[in-house]
């Protein structure tokens, strides 16, 4: 039974920082490419960033590049999303997702497993 559980969301002021976690069970994290996506009310789910299986190479959407960083801890079977210099437009439900691929996939429809999401609210 594969399960992804996000945590660490909440309310933060503009310019602040927040670190999200995605704990995986039922799969070996190091064998999966892990993506982070976000969805704001009334908007489509959008790609935020991805970390590739094996070498751990990362790729980010232009909207978050330079502010967000993805990392992983294979011993804890957990991936992280460090978010800095947060803006109100970053407000969304953040989801982690997993796929057995060596590619840096950015399309949500290509991911196999999903977490339930965690709310991030950035106030002005």
Description:
The protein is mainly beta. Helix content is 0%, strand content 49%. The protein is built from no helices and eleven strands. The chain has strands spanning 3-7, 10-13, 18-25, 33-39, 46-51, 58-60, 68-73, 78-83, 92-99, 113-114, 118-123. The strands form two sheets. Strands 2, 4, 5, 6, 9, 10 and 11 form a seven-stranded mixed β-sheet that branches. A four-stranded antiparallel β-sheet has the order 1-3-8-7, with no helix packed on it. The radius of gyration is 13 Å and the shape is globular. The N and C termini lie far apart (40 Å). The model has no long low-confidence stretch (mean pLDDT 97).
Q: Nutshell version of this structure?
A:
With 124 residues, this protein is mainly β. The protein is built from no helices and eleven strands.
* Mean pLDDT across all amino acids: 97
How would you sum up the global shape? globular
What's the SSE pattern?
EEEEEEEEEEE
What oligomeric state is this? Answer: single chain
Q: Indicate the structural class.
A: mainly beta
- Give start-end ranges of low-pLDDT stretches: none
Q: Sheet bearing the most strands, described?
A: 7 strands, mixed
Count helical runs. Answer: 0
Number of strands: 11
Estimated share of beta-strand residues: over 45%
Helix content: under 10%
Radius of gyration based on Cα positions: 13 Å
Distance between the termini: 40 Å
């Amino acid at each position: 039974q594969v399960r992804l559980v996000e945590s660490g969301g909440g309310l933060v002021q503009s310019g602040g920082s927040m670190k999200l976690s995605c704990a995986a069970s039922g799969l070996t994290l190091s064998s999966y490419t892990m993506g982070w996506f976000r969805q704001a009310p009334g908007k489509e789910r959008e790609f935020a960033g991805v970390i590739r299986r094996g070498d751990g190479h990362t790729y980010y959407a232009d909207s978050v590049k330079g502010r967000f960083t993805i990392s992983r801890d294979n011993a804890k079977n957990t991936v992280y999303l460090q978010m800095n210099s947060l803006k109100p437009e970053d407000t969304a439900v953040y989801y982690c997702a997993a796929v057995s691929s060596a590619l840096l996939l950015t399309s949500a429809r290509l991911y196999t497993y999903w977490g339930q999401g965690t709310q991030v609210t950035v106030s002005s």
